[in-house]
Amino acid sequence: MHALHHALLAATVKPVSPSPSPPTAFTPLVDLLPEAMLLLGALACLVLAALRRRAGIRTYQVISGLALVAAAGCNFAYLRGLPTSSANPGYIAYGNGLVVDRFTLFLTATLCAFALFTVLMGTVLSERIRTHLGEYHAFLLLATLAGVLLVSTREMVSAWVAIELLGISLVLLTGTVKTARRGGEAALKQFVAGIVSSAVLLYGLALLYGLGGSTDLVVVAHGATHAGPALQLAMALTLLGLLGKVGVVPFQRLLPDVFQGAPAPVIGFAGTVAVTAVLGLFMRVAVTAFPAVQGSWPALVALVAALTMLYGSLLALRQQSVRRLLGHLLLAQVGVLLMGFLGWRHENGGIAVVMVGLASGGFAVLAAAAVITLVEASGSSDRVDSYRGLSRRSPGAAAALSVALLSLAGVPPAIGFFSRLLAMESAVLAGYAWLLVLALASTVVGALAALRLVRVMFTAEPDADALPLEAPFAGRLTLAVCGVAVVALAAAVQPLLSLAGGGASAVVIR
Q1: Alpha-carbon distance 246 to 258, whole Å?
Q2: Cα Rg for the chain, rounded, in angstroms?
């Protein structure tokens, strides 16, 4: 583990500061090529839905898949063009509001991968939404577009627009199945929680603009140098408003409620794309905008992380719904990642640890969501008892769900164990050793909750009327790739950390 930490430091300690590249006539188009691909894909789905209501699921999957692959391809083309000088990690465009650096590229590729697997899982859902398949895929792409903008922006107005686009798209996706009462209820709860967190965030941004005199977060950081009560309040409201979008304490009911009512493929999307995008923006805002109160905001993040870890793991222990169990385990994992972010400075490597945790945890959530999708498509409910003897009905699905839940709980040898271990190390190195006790307790309780479901799947006899799982090729592919990734990434944790370390350096030093 010390070797991993040293490798991470070697990737992150390069002193860098951004400088914009000279603009050309094509700069506005080139700067937003990944976003343009996603927007064109969404428009194509909407136009096709309006012109040909009988277009099948495969047509929309091809359009969405091509848009996501094209966006990721443009992303890697950016990587080839980024300067290698330590004095220039990337470039800035659109009035210094859009940042293209290795942090952006790492998370953009991650978001596109998560969205692509969600598109593949939609095959199982197609019969229930056959009258609005185009709208479903369009909002998937729009939500991904919003996520890409969130991880690349450092300007208040663009961040606000992107985060609201993400929220509205998720509400509509949650309520996609119009005949499902729980889906409509979850969408309404998500909408109300989004309004509250947006109000908190908007008030914080308004105070921040008044203190810094600009919507550019870097300009605000240079202008708001007096750590007075106004800046402290702006910091608290801004960071809590952002964290409220991922359902941490005190918005802790958001994720479990959405997971219980949303269509099963949307569970994976909300737990991966939304969480990764918002936490990506959170990291950039916290480090960029508040250098004057660097002694205050880590204490707030530590408190939120502690409460979120404990709440998520303790509530997971009593869940009888597999969906809510997954939601609470993910909530505890978010708390652990926030604990790792406390070591955001170069010497602690916390930002890279969070980036790795978001990528690896996303594959675990997608694998679990794929199994839930297949089990419910066979006519079973989301109750724990419905998973009795799943290993006999589908050994692959039972193994994938077990590995995914144990990874989210931090049990070795899955990648989630290494993410937790590195997050704990970063927090301890940053001086928050007291969180280690809470993190260990949260891990033990979460592991017990996950093992309870694993025992039911492998030791109990299936119900006499339980049907074998029948999955289309796209569902089996998603299940296999995500399930294998949860284990395989553990063997590649060192190169993954080094890759994430290059992106972390672009955020820490400007």
Answers
A1: 11
A2: 22
Q: Both tokens of residue 358?
A: 């978001």
pLDDT in tens, 121-177: 888 777 777 778 888 999 999 999 999 999 988 888 889 999 999 999 999 998 887
Phi and psi for 93 in degrees, rounded to 5?
A: -140, 175
Cα dihedral sign, 93-95-98-103: positive
Q: Distance (Å, rounded) from C-alpha 251 to C-alpha 24?
A: 45
What DSSP state is assigned to residue 409?
A: H
Spatial contact of 107 and 276, defined as CB atoms under 8 Å apart: yes
Cα separation, 508 vs 193, in Å, equals 31
- Nearest CA among 205, 139, 145 for reference residue 168: 139
| Model confidence band, residue 493 (pLDDT cutoffs 50, 70, 90) | confident
Q: Is 178 exposed, middle or buried (0-12, 13-18, 19+ CB in 10 A)?
A: exposed
Number of separate helices (H) and strands (E) present in the chain: 22, 2
SS3 88: coil
CA proximity to 376, closest of 231, 235, 494, 267:
267
Q: What is the tens place of the pLDDT at every residue in 255-285?
A: 888 888 888 889 999 999 999 999 999 998 8
Are the beta carbons of 397 and 475 closer than 8 angstroms?
no
Residue 10 CA to residue 1 CA, distance in Å, equals 14
Type and span of the H or E element at 99: strand 98-100
As a whole number, mean pLDDT of residues 306-321 equals 91
User: Cα torsion for 331, 404, 379, 49, to the nearest 10°?
Assistant: 70
**The two three-digit tokens of residue 137, written as one number:** 């895929």
Residue in this structure with the two tokens 């908007």, named with its chain if needed: 202
- How far does the chain reach from its first CA to its final CA, in angstroms? 29
* Cα→Cα distances 100→122, 210, 236, 356, 357, Å: 31, 27, 27, 19, 22
Query: Which residue type occupies 18?
Result: P
How many angstroms separate the CA atoms of 269 and 77, rounded? 25
Strands 91-93 and 98-100: antiparallel
Write the DSSP symbol of residue 26: T
State the Cα–Cα distance between residues 214 and 45, nearest whole angstrom.
37
Cα–Cα distance between 398 and 392 in angstroms, integer? Answer: 9
Helical packing angle, 350-377 and 395-409, nearest 10°: 150
